[in-house]
Structure formats: C-alpha cells, structure tokens
Design goal:
Blueprint lengths: L1 H5 L5 E3 L8 H9 L4 E4 L5 H10 L5 E6 H6 L2 H7 L5 E5 L4 H10 L2 E6 L2 H8 L5 E5 L5 E2 L5 H11 L5 E4 L5 H9 L4 E4 L1 H4 L8 H9 L5 E4 L1 H6 L8 E4 L2 H6 L3 H6 L1 H13 L23 H8 L2
Parallel strand pairs: 1-9, 2-3, 3-4, 4-5, 5-6, 6-8, 8-9
Antiparallel strand pairs: 7-11, 10-11
C-alpha cells in the first residue's frame, strides 16, 4: 500500500534530518528503492536550492519543521518549485499548508507524537502519518513507539502509518511491521552513512556510542537560542550536557559567554561540547555504510 502510494519499491523513508539529510543522501536512499527526504531544518533558501541540485535526477521529497515554516512560508513555494514527490511536516499545525502541497502534486506526510497531535494532523487529510516514538534522535514527544504506533493506527482509519524511533536494522523493521506499521522512517542509522552531511567526527561518535549514552534534553536549544517550547531532543551525552542538564535557568543567565563558546566548539568540531542528535538505536550501528547498503540490510 505505502509503496504504491509513494511510488517506491521498499517501504522505507529517510527522515528529513536538518544538517544531515542533504540532497546526496536523499537521492541515494531513493535510488536504493526507498524515499529520500531532504531535511530543510529551520529554513535556508540557498541551502534548499543547493541540496535539490545535489539530488538532481532522483525522485526525492523534503521535510520542514512546521512552526518554522509558518514564519517563512515562501520556503514552501521554493521547495515546491523543484517538484518534490512528498513534503513532510513535523511540529506544528499542518492544516494551513495542506492544500498548497496537495495542489502541487506532492504527497503530504505528517509526523505525530501523540493522539492529540494525530487528530489535528488528520484534519489536514495527510497521505501518510509518521508515528514517532521517544526513542528517536532529535526532537520528539513523550510516548514510546511500541505503544504509540498501534494507538495511532487505531484512529488513522485508511491513512497509512510509518513507524519512527529506535529502528536501525531488520529486527526493528520487522517489529514495526508486526505492530501494524505500513513502513518505517529512519534517521539515526542514516546519520552514519557515507552520503550524510554529518561530520566524520560525529559519525565516529555515533558508531562508538551506546543507547545508554543518549539523553532527552533542552540544553542545546537553550544555548543555541532556539525556542522549542519545552520539547526535548534526544542527543548523545557529552561534557556540555553533564554540565548543564538540570541547570537550564543558570545557562540562560550566562548566554553571552556560553553561546560564544558553544559555537566555537561547533566550528572546531569539538563534540565534547557540540550537539549530535542520535536515537537509542545507536547500539545497532557499528560502521559507516553507503546508504544503499543500509536500505538493503533493513529491507531485503
């Protein structure tokens, strides 16, 4: 069902991870039989143009943070000018953008983290839902995939549902399908792919990390001055989280110095301070592989 709907051979979609899922990675996943989504992140017109150029010739889509897109709706027009086959919206009300996306011919994918968010998303009449469990890397909700997925399926009627969060190998794929998923959306495993925009140093840390070393936190959003309205993001623990987790109010009082030091660490790729979003499935990642090989291993 999902394969026919999205025009893909394998029921696997690349999560549109900001600063990770560029055009080359999206194209590689699509050429391997899945669907690659470019991660537009907080929105940058020049970057979006560049990544669609890197994906030229491949059938790809794009994903936006919905509340960020609401501030810069012209970015949706820009993305649609490249004729993406799908647009994924996460975190925010998708209803204002649904008609324009459908009119473009793209499929609308809405990511949800609770039943309340699912009901709102269904009002936008999406083609596909993504049930995202708290095991996922990056920003997310508070419910685990094992319980959330079947609950979303029960109210989704005929709308297909992809599973996301903690899936990095064939076992996770099979488990998601057994719980009623129509396919999977995968992020962290592709962060450690050859085509990902992730830095080599960050890929190495993902390969070496354990799921025990991830944490849901807001400290990276505080220091970057990003307003995620209390939503946490799962990342690899480091010296920065060890220092500031639970001390967010104090961090806000020291923003000038800490923000400067943080971005200096980002520049020199010092991941004892800088952020690496990663999900609990890092236990299952033991090497950096081509995206096509990752697709093959997860969906034979």
């Amino acid at each position: 069902m999902i394969a026919k709907l999205l025009g893909i051979a394998k029921p696997l979609v690349l999560a549109p991870m900001g600063s990770v899922s560029g055009g080359a990675l999206a194209a590689a996943v699509s050429r391997a039989g899945g669907l690659g989504l470019i991660g537009a992140g907080y929105g940058d017109a020049a970057w979006i143009r560049e990544q669609f150029q890197h994906a030229e010739g491949a059938r790809v889509g794009i994903g936006f943070i919905t509340w960020s897109l609401a501030k810069r709706p012209e970015l949706l027009d820009l993305a649609l000018s490249y004729k993406p086959c799908a647009v994924m919206l996460s975190f925010g009300d998708p209803r204002p953008f649904a008609a324009k996306i459908r009119q473009s011919g793209a499929k609308l994918i809405c990511q949800v983290q609770s039943l309340a968010i699912t009901r709102q998303a269904l009002e936008a009449a999406p083609d596909v839902l993504v049930a995202q469990g708290t095991e996922a890397g990056g920003h997310g909700g508070e419910r685990s995939l094992f319980a959330l997925l079947p609950a979303v399926k029960d109210i989704a009627a005929n709308t297909p549902v992809l599973a996301a969060g903690g899936i990095a190998d064939r076992r996770g794929f099979d488990a998601a399908m057994a719980l009623g998923a129509d396919g999977v959306l995968i992020g962290t495993r592709f962060s450690a792919s050859e085509e990902a925009l992730t830095s080599p140093q960050a890929k190495k840390r993902i390969v070496e990390a354990s799921g025990d070393a991830t944490i849901r936190t807001t400290v990276f959003d505080v220091v970057r001055n990003f307003d995620w309205r209390g939503i946490t993001g799962r990342a690899l623990r480091n010296k920065f989280t060890d220092t500031w987790q639970g001390r967010e109010a104090e961090l806000k009082q020291r923003m000038d110095a800490e923000c400067k030091a943080y971005y200096a660490a980002v520049e020199r790729r010092d991941f004892d301070t800088a952020l690496i979003f990663a999900g609990e499935a890092v236990d299952l990642i033991d090497s950096v592989l081509p995206a096509a090989e990752i697709v093959r291993r997860i969906v034979h």
